[in-house]
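Purpose: get a first structural picture of the assembly so the mutagenesis plan has something to point at.
Setup: two entries, given in the order below. No constraints added.
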Amino acid sequence: MTLTAPVVPQARIAPPSLTRPIIMTASALVLGAIFILLSPMDAETTFIFNLGDTFISIPDWIVPSRTAATGFAIAALVCAAIAWPINARRGSLFLPAFGLGVFLVMSFLAWVGADSLLPITGLLQGSLLLAVPLIFGAMAGVLSERAGVININIEGQLLVGAFLGAVVASLLNNAYLGLVAAPVAGALLGLLLAVFATRYFVDQVVVGVVLNVLAVGLTGFLYSRFLTEDPDLWNNPEVLPTIAIPVLSDIPILGPILFDQNVIVYLMYVVVTVVQIALFKTRWGLRLRSVGEYPEAADSVGIEVNRTRFRAVILAGAVAGLGGAFFTLGSVGAFGREMTAGNGFIALAAVIFGRWNPIGALAAALLFGFADNLQNVLSIIGSPIPSQFLLMLPYVVTILAVVGLVGRVRAPGADGIPFRKS
Amino acid sequence: MQLQLRGITKRFGDLVANDDISVTFEPGQIHALLGENGAGKSTLMNVLYGLLQPDAGQIVVDGEPLVFHSPAGAIAAGIGMVHQHFMLVPVFTVAENVELGAESVGPFGFLKTADAARAVERVSAEYRLAVDPNAVVEDLPVGIQQRVEIVKALTREAQCVILDEPTAVLTPQETDELLSIVRGLRDAGKTIVLITHKLREVREAADVITVIRRGRVVAESVSPQTSEVELASLMVGREVSLVVDKPSLEVGEPVLRVNQLSVYDTLDRAIVDDVSFDVRAGEVLCIAGVQGNGQSELVEALVGLHDRSEGRIDLGEKRIDGLSTKGILDLGVGYVPEDREHDGLVGSFSLAHNMVLDTIGESPWSRRGVINYGLINENGQNLIEQYDVRATNAQVAASTLSGGNKQKVVLAREMSRSLRLLIASQPTRGLDVGSIEFVHRQIIQARQSGVGVIVVSTELDEVYALADRILVMYAGRIAGVVTPDVGRDDLGLLMAGATTS
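Result (structure tokens, whole complex):
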């Protein structure tokens, strides 16, 4: 028999799936058409960009509603069209999808904002504020799940952080001390999750759900037992002051959004940066990711898998607890029963949508915060859409984001799987 | 480094996995530890590597008794292990995997990535083990992944390297390459322990052989000149025949025709790429190839278990691509899946129940939705006698059986229906020699009764024992279809991607 030399194995690639460009084009056409047709002919929409004092004040932008809706819809369609050749080359569709989203939202705003004033900068600033707890929660999710422990418990950790932060700040009359107490509360709840997940190998989802119920029950009980009895003593914390960072806060549009905030927001920038760098550039991060991807391999080189996971879950709890303080100390001050209202679960969606990456999760949390605040702003300016539908908006965006745009996501290899030595 | 095990005993409940094992590994020697699956070789090595603690016995390194509470202790003592299932994080780079657990760091624990890459390059050059430190491990072929494991051990200054079933996933050529690397390490004065159940490579590479059976040393300091038959009987504990009695062939019409079949993975890559072949009644077609060249996906597509395939598949006169798996099985296809633990059986169900798993909703096993347990149990009892399943009765849970007996249950179920085509994927993987003989006889019996048989195997011995024709797959394509009189070297070359011209 004659044999010829081996060929280099190169798998043939099937033509790329057209699903995503088709969905993008269809949504641009359908939604664009709806926004154009519904926007009134003779009305004007005013976009306001000023918020506070900046170097340059940008004049308000007044446009005929239907013209603006049409223009933005066409821009969205262009983005969808660009997606086709990029998809054919298997390139990343992130930018066209992002552009599509932005222009569709603008087209939508041109319609619903007809005859009213749309505070764009205020809309974005509010989005950031609503996203802050989501971002902390998402960082907690990333830390815990990268180490291989599913963290359903973020919701409860946010709640106990909000609670203890408010109580300590109120009792000691110092919001900053409350800020120190909040992560302790989150870490304690994280400790429970860590003990059950890494020492007793209980199903992590079940433990997480149970601990959420515990957090709701415990804070609810203490709330009605103490906080409502003597609110002045127990539930009257001062709100953290906003600190404008000199120069940076004077940048037009971005300045007031990013750099005229309270200390929790600045801590959030620090946490996201530190988590991103520490996970991918340090020994700690390498080992944490190894126990989440393939614990047997980590074990075989002498890394203590369950100890690493244990610490990661507690640290995650502390991060979520700090984020919880934003509900009380960072915005309204007083604690309210079940005030986290599902934010922990949306944070979990942000982890998945962000593909278990801190920066990705940050972007996802900002998107969800935007959807939430858009609903707030629209109900204030009075939109033609029934308020019940507007209330659904953040959740609809979450679901669409997680099921539709994610593409192929890949969780850490051992996420949710207890590690037991044979 | 001289490494001694003295009286190692390890129990798991009632099972004594290692019973008073004593053996000495000398530097500059390749010492083979030969034994069947389940003989206790891997347990012994896990004890030695600190992954398990012995119930009794001592580990002595260069005359000094040591206790390893975790792999870290074994690594510190200069022991490196190349595991059968590679201990590499798939999404990490080669350098990250090599440095994991022994990272060189700067201030604040920042990784010195360049140092890790240099360490890989240094060891690569010293022992001629070419690997790219920046490649991501999951993109590398298994042969190279194994090389990364060896590099990993060597960068930790291992003086003793343990290789656990290192050739299970390699082509014959890769095996030769590995054995020459191992010889190089030996000549550099390392202590090498080669754990295997493959007689051929033991005789080829080992300097000295220790045979283990049922947790005990049954022969020590065996010379590698000992014949294969003799080694096999030491390993199994009785006379074994290494040849399957196979009557001459009377092939009939094609029962299965596969036309331009392709299967894609989630990244749109063609795992099976435009494959066409026939299987005729009364022949055994062996699909040979190194694991991961599309054989598993091909078989899944044949029985309708893969949702991203295209092409035409005909069973007799009927087109079956696009049918449900149940629909295909009902047309007379028997399927012995590759992973019998997960896909072949329901572990918590009884044997009797497992024997009718695919037909339980049908007459006579159930009528009007009510199961007839009496009949099912009777059927189970008959089949365990007929197929020599070693179980007290048909009521025990399938998960309590050994691998060989589980496979007999799967075979009993699949072959008790009337078949036109039998597909057996890795039918003897992990089985003891006795069960292998039994499974092979059943497959030949099916062939004699006029059934078309497809056997997927990565073991050349099995391919030669069973095949009437051999279809070699490489990178998702058919590298060639040959008869069993082809030489081992040529078959090995086909499996490594050469094509017949």
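Residues 8 and 113 of chain A are 60 Å apart (CA to CA).
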